[in-house]
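A reminder from the course coordinator: this example appears on the midterm review sheet, so study it carefully.

Given structure:
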């Protein structure tokens, strides 16, 4: 398995991911897509709603938080930190903020090299999924590209990772607050003739 791209949280094919990783596989969990949310609110959400690190660990994996901000401008140290990691997982939030973090830390270049070569599995939901596309054009109808916090480059990164040859639109046709925006994004991509796939919550694209 190279890619596990979900619309919402872990999706309905999580067993396939577990079998591909094997027991005690190391998982780096990235939550930079929600860096615009105050830390205390993020902590409360993880404690009372859903904590991806705890979820992975509860399934017998060895997961840890990886804050890409601590690696901005230091891709060599990031690569060393990821030594032995089998899955890099990116949570939902603002796709443009996540994409900035990937570029500033050098994770984007590392993923392109290691995922294509089979050294890493990349997965994520919502924002974590859509950045795998060739471009983030059209996703501004769902996420604000101007959202930045301290330490981030102000300019949006419109280029995706290019791990799949089409755009992804999560939350399509779902009971989700962004479902209407997802329909607008899908319609825009179709009007532009850009290849894309929609994902309903629960659906996962596995490659």
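Designed residues:
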């Amino acid at each position: 398995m190279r890619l596990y791209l979900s619309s919402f949280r872990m999706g309905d094919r999580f067993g396939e991911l577990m079998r591909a990783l094997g027991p005690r596989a190391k998982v780096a969990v990235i939550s930079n897509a929600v860096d615009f949310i105050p830390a205390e609110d993020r902590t409360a959400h993880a404690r009372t709603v859903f904590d991806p690190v705890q979820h992975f660990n509860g399934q017998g994996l060895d997961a840890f938080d990886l804050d890409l901000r601590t690696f901005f401008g230091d891709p060599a140290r990031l690569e060393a930190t990821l030594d032995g990691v089998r899955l890099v997982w990116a949570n939902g939030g603002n796709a443009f903020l996540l994409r900035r973090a990937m570029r500033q830390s050098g994770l984007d270049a590392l993923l392109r090299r290691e995922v294509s070569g089979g050294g890493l599995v990349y997965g994520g939901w919502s924002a974590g999924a859509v950045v795998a596309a060739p471009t983030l054009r059209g996703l501004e109808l769902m996420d604000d590209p101007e959202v930045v916090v301290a330490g981030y480059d102000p300019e949006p990164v419109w280029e995706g990772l290019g791990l799949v040859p089409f755009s992804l639109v999560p939350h399509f046709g779902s009971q989700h607050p962004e479902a209407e925006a997802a329909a607008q994004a899908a319609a825009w991509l179709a009007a532009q003739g850009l290849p894309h796939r929609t994902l309903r919550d629960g659906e996962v694209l596995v490659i």
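DSSP finds eight helices and eight strands in the chain. The chain has a mean pLDDT of 97.
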